[in-house]
Structure formats: structure tokens, C-alpha cells
Amino acid sequence: MIVTQRLSAFQPDDIAVAGAILRRGGVVAIPTETVYGLATAADNAVAVERIFAAKGRPSDNPLIVHIADIQALETLCRDVPDEAFLLASRFWPGPLTLVLPKKDTVPDVVTAGLPTVAVRLPASPEARAVITAAGVPLAAPSANRAGRPSPTCADHVWADMNGRIDAVLDGGACCLGVESTVLDLTSQIPRLLRPGGVTHEELEAALGVVVAVDPAVLGLLPPGEKPRAPGMKYRHYAPEAPVVILSGDAKAAAAYVQKNNAKGTAVLCAEEEKSIFPDVLVVCYGRESEPKSLARGLFDALRQLDDPEIQIIYARRPAAGGLMDAVRNRLGKAASFQILDV
Ligand code: TXA
Ligand code: MG
Fold first, then answer.
1. Which pLDDT does position 215 carry in this prediction?
2. What does the pLDDT average to over 251-272?
């Protein structure tokens, strides 16, 4: 057990402390615009191993390397295609992660032995300040214990990581709330590995065709099929109780829940639908009319639902398209892609 310091991302002195901890191989949870990341110096293999230990993350799941300026991209990657620079000019700083061929200087532990590395330049000024203070790119997965919802505020990180890491840098609530889009640029046609803050539509407008490598990515997995994309095979974001996604119209979903409303039943839905589920615990995570609010509220809602009193969670199936693809994907993972047509 280590003593975890609590630092403020809005205090320059605390940013300097975080930078010093990172330079000597420590682990610091940092705020970004998507979710909090569990950061350490990407060039320090021993330090990176500490991240896997603190998270309980399988060593075959690679990390994202965070940079504070575009020049750092070519210190990590080789054969960077024009598409990468085009995307960087449109979407960086921001919630887009690019997978590119790695240079030998990137330790294998960061990429789980893959010949590619995932790189992102975050929009959060606090995240960039701490990368700059560390003086090296930072390897950082989301700062949750493996399998838990990603943390969108410092208290979530504290709940998962107190005593396991050197410091938490509190930068307030994350404004986006779901993780970055992961795009693989190493194949002929760019492949969407994870939908996120930059949408599939925005990527196609910039690049032409972008394929979703796996139907599960956009929540379209046929029954009985297992996801293939890296990172997709892990059960994730899930509260203790099983999550079942209800597709179909609101009336049918309400009737289904009423019929199956045993003790410990909970519903996860948008504010607009709250009133159609009487006599049951309802957790709302945002407004259907504002996809950004749903993205921002999802992980906190999943944490609220992680309660020993709750036995089963029925979640309304989110709409598809734009930012909602990311919401649908995360909820799909929480439910192990169990969708019930009511
Ligand atoms: O918004 C985010 O991306 C946050 C913040 C902290 O930046 N980070 C994050 O990291 O979500 P993590 O480790 O929870 O998710 C990274 C995803 C995983 O699904 C991993 O499998 C995939 O990116 N990934 C990383 N490196 C890869 C690579 N070389 N090839 C394919 N997938 C990769
Ligand atoms: Mg994660």
C-alpha cells in the first residue's frame, strides 16, 4: 500500500509535483477531456509495468501514449502517413487516438508486444501541462480498476486507486465523459477500433471510407459472436449486477420491466423516459435530446448502479450515430452485448 497524494491540476506547484513524480517513475492519475488516465513515463518500462499492476490490467492489452505537441508524434512512430497529419490538423488536440507503426524506442510493455503504438494529443490544458512538466510522453490507460467504468472525476479515481498509485491530480469533472476514438491507420482502409469523442461520420468526412473492424464496435454484434478488436474482448464498465439492454419502443420496455420488476431491479435510461418506469429504481444519465449529456453521465451512472442491493439492471438501448455510437458501445460492453428485443 502506498500513500496516494491528492493534487490540484489548477495549481502550478501541484503540476510541477506531478511532473517530478512522473520523471522518477511514479504513477499519477491525470484529468483529460475524455476520462481520467493512469499516467507514467512512456519510456520507462518498469514504471509502465506498475500501471498494469495498479489497474489489474491484462498485459496483452496495450496502452495509449499521450503527447503535448505534434512534434512528439514522430519520436514515437515511423512511416507516419499523410492521413495522420491531416487528422491531427483537424482533430488534435482532442479525443482521437491514432494507431501507427511504432519506433523501437517505445518499450514493448506499452504496446503489449504489438508493432504499433496508439498516440493521442489531449485537448485538456491540464493534461498537456502535466505531460510538459514530465518532459516525456505519458503512457496512460483509463484510471479505473480493470473492468470498472472509466473514471470521469477525481472521486471515481480515488475509489479505485487510493493506496495503489502515487498521486491523483484533480482537474474536476471530465467534459466529454467517454474515451477517445481509436483509429488504426496501419491498414489500407482506416479501421475504427473504438468509437469515441470524434465520430465515425467526422472521420469519414475527413478520410473517405473508415471501416468498423468489428460489428461489436458499433453495437451490431450478431447473437453468439465474440468481438475481435483489441480491447473489445474484455467485459468492461460493468456493475456487479448483470446489465440487459432493452431494445424496442418505450411502451414495450416499460411493460417488460413492470412484468419483471422483482426486488433489486433497476433501470438506466434518459431523463425523458424516467416517468414511464414507475415503482422501480431509475438512474438517469442525461437527456436523450442532448447526446453530450448522455456521454458525460454514463460512467457515473454505471458506478451508482454498482450497489449490492441491485440484482439486475435494464438499460434502454441508446440511439445510433454520432457521439451516441460511443455511448452505445460502452453500454454494450457493460452488458456483454446482451440485447433483448421487447
Ligand atoms: O480517452 C482515452 O482514450 C483515455 C484517456 C486517458 O486518454 N484512455 C483510454 O485508455 O481509454 P484505455 O487503455 O482504457 O483504452 C485504450 C484502448 C484499448 O482498447 C486498447 O486495446 C486500444 O486502445 N489500443 C491501445 N494501443 C493499441 C494498439 N497499438 N493497437 C490497437 N489497439 C490499441
Ligand atoms: Mg479503459
1. 61
2. 96
Residue ID of nearest Cα to ligand 1 atom 18? 231
- Count of CB atoms within 10 A of residue 183's CB? 27
Phi/psi for 38 (5° steps) reads: -100, 100
Residue 47: which pLDDT band, with cuts at 50, 70 and 90?
Answer: very high
Q: What are phi and psi of 204, to 5 degrees?
A: -65, -35
Tell me, yes or no, if the pTM score tops 0.85: yes
Neighbouring-strand partners of residue 171: none
Mean pLDDT, all residues of the chain: 93
Å from CA of 178 to ligand 2 middle: 10
- DSSP for 208-226 reads S--EESSGGGGT-PPTTPP
CA distance 184 to 190: 6
Q: In Å, what is the CA distance from 294 to each residue of 57, 91, 115, 214, 215? A: 27, 22, 35, 24, 22
